[in-house]
Write a structure and sequence with these properties.
By secondary structure, the chain is of the alpha/beta class. It contains nine helices and eleven strands. It has helices spanning 11-22, 44-47, 75-88, 101-110, 124-140, 162-174, 179-182, 234-249, 257-261, and strands at residues 2-6, 27-32, 68-71, 91-94, 115-118, 145-152, 183-185, 199-205, 212-219, 222-229, 253-255. Strands 2-1-3-4-5-11 form a six-stranded parallel sheet, sandwiched between helices. A five-stranded mixed sheet has the order 7-8-6-9-10. α1 links the parallel β1 (2-6) and β2 (27-32). α1 (11-22) crosses α8, α3 (75-88) runs parallel beside α4 (101-110) and α5 (124-140) packs parallel to α6. Bound molecules: nicotinamide-adenine-dinucleotide.
Length: 263
């Protein structure tokens, strides 16, 4: 299966590229970076710290040779890549987070005619947690306050993380609340007592944390914490490659990791 990796020099791009080079069934056939990045024009294998693989990193995605394009970059560049994939009917796997509502609507309509797996978190365990969080919220109900706390490395540019938002959405779904009406991002000053309906969200940025998410459910006398630690980016990269194998066989449409895992 022929794969193009967008953002090959990035943290996720590096792990994806190396796992593809190490796999038996995947072939790296293209790699992109943003204009003016020092990796442009260099052999993609060398950018991955490996031997030369015979093609260079470009600033536009060439879909003609690819079965699937994987993008973990920025919302703006992912929209450009999605347009290229839609034009040639090429499958996509997208892990980029931080889309504005307008960008998200544009992305959804652009990929509507191709198979596309789009997920805020490609780790298997995190996708199990999405289900558990909704179920716990449903069982515990309105008596328990819900707060979501996430930690990521200091270089992350969006907050809260896409995974934290998904966790909060799932908790809200279990409580039959609309997240946008009850979410409270951080607290400062004299905020007054916590309302019973609100779902709090908090983002820590420190060091090199790959991803740490907790959902708390608190009532007088106890609290429950459901927690996921990503100990390396391989949890996301291996999941994205699993999604790529799924996407090349899938009918056109938008899928998420739950579909890939059969959850
Ligand atoms: P990063 O900054 O290390 O890598 C992003 C790469 O994309 C950079 O090398 C950057 O130069 C490149 N890029 C930017 N514009 C480009 C363009 N126009 N063309 C080609 N390349 C371009 O970031 P990262 O930690 O690898 O994360 C990337 C994205 O993936 C973020 O949105 C992050 O939140 C998300 N992410 C998602 C998951 C998941 O499981 N869904 C996991 C980890 C990260």
């Amino acid at each position: 299966m022929r794969v193009v990796v967008c953002g090959i020099a990035g943290r996720m791009g590096q792990r994806l590229g190396n796992l593809i080079l190490d796999s038996d069934d995947l072939e790296l056939v293209g790699a992109t970076e943003r204009p003016e990045h020092e990796a442009l024009g260099r052999d993609a294998g060398e950018v991955l710290g490996r031997g030369a693989c015979g093609f260079t990193v470009t600033d536009t995605v060439a879909t003609a040779q690819a079965d699937v394009v994987i993008a973990f970059t920025s919302p703006e560049s992912t929209l450009v890549d999605a347009t290229a994939c839609a034009a040639t009917g090429t499958s996509m796997v997208v892990g980029t987070t931080g889309f504005t509502p307008e960008q998200l609507a544009q992305f959804h309509s652009t990929v509507a005619a191709i198979p596309c797996v789009f997920a805020p978190n490609f780790s298997t365990a995190m996708n199990v947690l999405f289900r558990l969080v909704e179920e716990a919220a449903r069982i515990l109900g309105d008596d328990y306050d819900v707060e979501v706390v996430e930690a990521h490395h200091r270089l992350k540019v969006d907050a809260p993380s896409g995974s934290a938002l998904r966790l909060a959405e799932r908790a809200a779904a279990g409580l039959e609340r609309n997240l946008s009406e009850v979410v409270v991002h951080g607290r400062q000053g004299v905020t007054g007592e916590r309302t019973r309906q609100e779902i709090g969200m908090h983002a820590l940025r420190l060091g090199d944390v790959a991803g740490d998410h907790s959902v708390y459910y608190g009532a007088p006398g106890e609290y429950l914490e459901l927690r996921h630690h990503a100990t390396s980016r391989d949890a996301f990269a291996t999941g994205a490659l699993r999604a790529a194998r799924f996407a090349v066989e899938a009918q056109p449409g938008l899928y998420d990791m739950g579909d890939v895992l059969g959850l």
